[in-house]
Amino acid sequence: MEQLNLGDSKGINRRRRSDQTLHMIFLACTSIGILVLMALIVTIVMDGVHRLSPELFTNFPSRIADKAGLKSPIVGTIYLLLLMAPLSFVLGVGAAIFLEEYAGRSRWVRLIQLNISTLAGVPSIIYGILGLAIFVRGMNLGRSLLSGVLTMTLLVLPIIIVAAQEALRAVPKNRRDASYALGATKWQTVSSAVLPSAIPGIMTGVILALSRAIGETAPLIMIGALTYVAFLPENLLDSFTVMPIQIFNWVSRPSEAFHELAASGIILLLIMLFIMNIAAVWIRNKYSKNI
Amino acid sequence: MIRRIEFDHQLDELRSLLQDMGKHMEEALANSVESLQTLDAEKAQAVIKNDVQLNNMEEQIMDIGSRLIVTQQPVAKDLRRILVAFRIASDLERMGDLARDVAKVTIRLQGQKLIKPLVDLPRMSDMVRAMVSESIESYLTENTDLAYKMAQDDDQVDHLYSVILQDLYSHLTSDPDSANQAMLLIMVGRYIERIADHATNIGESTVYLVTGHRPDLNQ
Amino acid sequence: MESIIQIKKLNLYYDTYHALKNVDLDIPEKTVTAFIGPSGCGKSTLLRTLNRMNDMIPSTRIEGSVQIGGTEIYSEEVHVEALRKQVGMVFQQPNPFPKSIYDNIAYGPRLHGIRNKAELDQIVEQSLKQAVLWDEVKDYLKRSALSLSGGQQQRLCIARALAVQPDILLMDEATSALDPISTLKIEELVQELKSKYTIVMVTHNMHQAARVSGQTVFFLNGEVVESANTDTLFSTPSDARTEDYISGRFG
Lengths: 291, 219, 251
Prior knowledge:
The complex is a heterotrimer of chains A (291), B (219) and C (251).
Chain A: H1 10-48, H2 55-58, H3 71-102, H4 107-119, H5 124-138, H6 145-169, H7 173-181, H8 186-213, H9 218-222, H10 243-251, H11 256-288
Chain B: H1 5-38, H2 41-72, H3 76-108, H4 120-141, H5 144-174, H6 179-211
Chain C: E1 3-14, E2 17-28, E3 32-36, H1 43-50, E4 60-68, E5 71-72, H2 80-86, E6 87-90, H3 101-111, H4 117-130, H5 134-137, H6 150-162, E7 168-172, H7 180-193, E8 198-202, H8 206-212, E9 215-220, E10 223-229, H9 230-235, H10 240-246
Parallel strand pairs in C: 3-8, 3-9, 6-7, 7-8
Antiparallel strand pairs in C: 1-2, 1-4, 4-5, 9-10
Helix pairs in contact in C: 3-4, 3-6, 4-6, 6-7
EC number (chain C): 3.6.3.27
Organism (chain C): Paenibacillus lautus
Pfam family, one (chain C): ABC_tran
């Protein structure tokens, strides 16, 4: 039998070297990103950690740094989330189900699809302007929690619709076939054979969309969320504020103390985001065996 | 067009093996009757020895055919080609045995003189040799008309055999000393008549190959 | 034998492509009928006509008549969901739902309104027994269907189809994706089922058709070339094209 030539050869060495070089380049790119992120987090934590105290949760914002807290912004953010979540979920998932399972593939449908994906990338302040025109002024809801909820729902809706559609699309066709072949109607098929597998993907998409929403400042400022709110909103039509706005407010003050307070607010916000992302991963893992 | 080159190649091999077997068989018949006519013991021995070749060829055909069935999973006409090859090989092998039996009679008649010069038996043998050749031809060309002709030829052979029987029987009764030889010659006639029946079987196999149905040509 | 399916002058078009041409065919009841033919000849298309799965392809147009049990299945009054309860289907790739074994089988009956647990239990057991899978899984009904092997999954799909008590079972190359032993098990299963169900199977494996079916239909380019008793078709086919195809000398 002829000898197999498995040893060195010019071509292979050159290829291996360029392989390793690229490996290093990609590693460097990733490292830069991670290092910058770490640097940011470390800076923030160093600035704000000594301002973290129970008072942050119990005190309202104040002109006096030592008395200032985040009670109303925290509550505002939480209310916003709790109200947005079901609304955006129902509208977003409903729209996705309609587009993916019922609407067909005509020119009109494809046009709508294209527009929705585009809307997901529109700067958030545009939604603020839209919210101002339609909800605050047009429907006379004023600068209220309700306007905020509706505006932010509009903001996240395209993201949820796209994510939900992807999740539905990922369910293989033959599963639908099996359901239809047993005599199921379209809705029976969607609800029993398609949605259960798509839920992890949909939930992940929803949570990620919401976690984007809690960091938004511009649209809420547009619709008039106040920057100095020393009370808790009592009903949907009350004024309110959210954490990013308060943080923004503190950062723009000259005093060092308020910068530190802002940093501590950012830490809280990061913790909330972290929890939400962990939840998304947990849900995905728990239900992925059913995919 | 999808071809089955290897398969067709093997089927051709089966056909040429059968063609060879047919020729061998015809030679064996010719030689055995010739040996009887001149009571040539050497010629008779040669026929007896060569019979083993026909056995070998039959085995070869069985082997090739079995292998084809296992590996190629033939259906319809392809399957019939192989089954028919088995049948014809078997018929030819039996025909060879019968020719060998004729040669054995030559050996047994050693030291005797023929009670009469053989005329009808060689004629019968010629007719049967023609039948063998026709039957193989009908198989190779898949000619059912030729196959049906076998039935008529067989009738003629039967007729000639009954003439020979009459003739030898009268010898038996008139000349007791020649009884032994007369009986052996009657048996030779019987052997040749059986060869004709087998040749007719080959004709039937051809009809089965072509149509998928078996006729009975041996009434 | 009574014919339970009667197809007359059936023509099917995908847009302008003429997929089925003037199909006239009778399918006898409680037997196994095999559809054979080269790829793209229309055998799967015809199969899917029988449970109107073709309806889901938007550009499909049908002319002609398909009668099952005396009813024209393409008439306006027929509800497709009811048809598919009577005419079940098993697909080429085993496609169990990512649910438990029990829930997979109970899926069909639940669709049609059966909620009583005792009734469902009985249906699940009976269906799994018919599919010769009960003994293998009876202690693991709550386990995910995806934990079964390929052959078991396909038998599960058969049990699932039988759970709604159809009269006819359509099998679209149901053993193509399986190993030889699983294939043989399912062929045995089909032999047992044929006493209760009419089975129509599409197969690209001719020898399977010869082994398993009582009636074989040969398709070519959207037409039925020959339909005959299986033994006859495989030993003395009447059409030269059939002979060429089954002998593998096909082009």
